[in-house]
Amino acid sequence: TMQKMIQDQKDEIGDVRRKLNLALDQKRRLEQELDHAKFTSDNMRTKMENELREKDLRVNQTLRSVDNEVETRTKELTIQLAAYDKLQHDNIVLDKKNKELVNEIALHINAQKLLNQELDHKQ
Fold it and tell me: What is the maximum span of the chain, computed from C-alpha positions, in angstroms?
């Protein structure tokens, strides 16, 4: 019976070793899965960071383009507005000169009428 007890203990030790080996195998597999998950997560994070950087670059390029376009159009409109203001000023000056000429012509016409009247009276 002593042999039986020794055999039982050996069997029990064998069971414990098998269970321990199974647990160690399971731990190894879980560590591998964890490493794979970390690797996948790192790759996804890197990919997302790269995509975000690219999108950020595109957005900044678009903003610079829009800013440049706004600046260019603002300059063009400023030039057009200055030209319009000059034309408006020139029109005011021309209107004033035209009125002066009309008044001068009216004076000449009146003077001519007076001369004609005087000539008519002398005849």
Answer: 177
pLDDT in tens, 39-75: 999 999 999 999 999 999 999 999 999 999 999 999 9
Cβ atoms within 10 Å, residue 40: 10
DSSP 123: -
The first and second tokens of residue 7, run together, are 């055999």
Q: Report pTM.
A: 0.51
How many Å apart are CA 41 and CA 45, to the nearest integer? 6
Q: pLDDT for 72-97, tens place per residue?
A: 999 999 999 999 999 999 999 999 99
Query: Reduced to 3 states, what is the DSSP secondary structure of residue 1?
Result: coil
Distance CA 83, CA 90 (A): 10
